[in-house]
Prior knowledge:
The structure is a single chain. By secondary structure, this protein is α/β, with parallel strands linked by helices. The chain has a single domain, classed as Ribonuclease Z/Hydroxyacylglutathione hydrolase-like (Metallo-beta-lactamase, Chain A, 4-Layer Sandwich). The chain contains 9 helices and 11 strands. The strands form 2 sheets. A 6-stranded mixed sheet has the order 6-7-8-9-10-11, with helices on one face. The protein has a 5-stranded mixed sheet with strand order 1-2-3-4-5. Helix 5 links the parallel strand 4 and strand 5. The longest helix has 17 residues. The radius of gyration is 17 Å and the shape is globular. Zinc ion binds next to helix 4.
Amino acid sequence: MVCHCLVLETRQGLVLVDTGLGMHDIQDPSRLERRFIKRSAPWLDPHETAVAQAERLGFKHEDVRHIIPTHLDLDHAGGLSDFPTAEVHVFRDEHEAAMHPVRRGKKFGYRPRQWAHGPRWKPHALDGERWFGFEAVRPLPGLGDDVLLVPLVGHSEGHCGVAVKTNGGWLRHAGEAYFNHRGLDPVVPRSPLGLALFQRLRSVDNAARLANQARLRELVRNHPREVHVFSAHCVTEFQRHAASSLPVASALIQGAAESCRGAIPATR
Ligand SMILES: [Zn+2]
């Protein structure tokens, strides 16, 4: 597995989509769930963190002005504390669920210590326009229609996909809406049995998750050249994007191609 993060260079500063595990998780692994460490055996290498990779690209942590976590599970939110000055954009339902996990029926995944530093939360309502068959899609403020928050509820209450406009079509981070590239195969979708069961058990609304997966497959089937979808944890997709030259970025999103080559694996 990887944690596939994306950093975009925009006129509003850097935008980071997902943060993977962070420097503080590595310095103090007790911030993570014991079960997670046992099951996933994360590679706790400081050089793999988003902040270290951004610094290697010549940026400072404060250059990251906006973060869009696809959701706030520990392997997506661990790096929040490495970028304490960034605004953190989440759907209101995700924020509420993460702040009150027991009341909202979420048994595992959220680790409040990862946001004990007090992030600059920017919760957004689940409403907006229709986009490629997805409802309630809204742009990230200040960037026109070039970065979109696309609800993909199911794995968590306010799970969010992110679509980035490039001159070669849309680049679509689907977070944990699916796990493995085979799950999105438009002809014969399949997922390893263990992973399928794991996803089902970890979802707050499995029916919504499956419905969104079906919609993503439809998207890939009907718009193979217009939309390029990848998930948070698939190694195959990560290697494909990290190795290839993506289409030239649009006027606003100057660095999408370079950023994707610097995509960030945080666990293996
Ligand atoms: Zn995850």
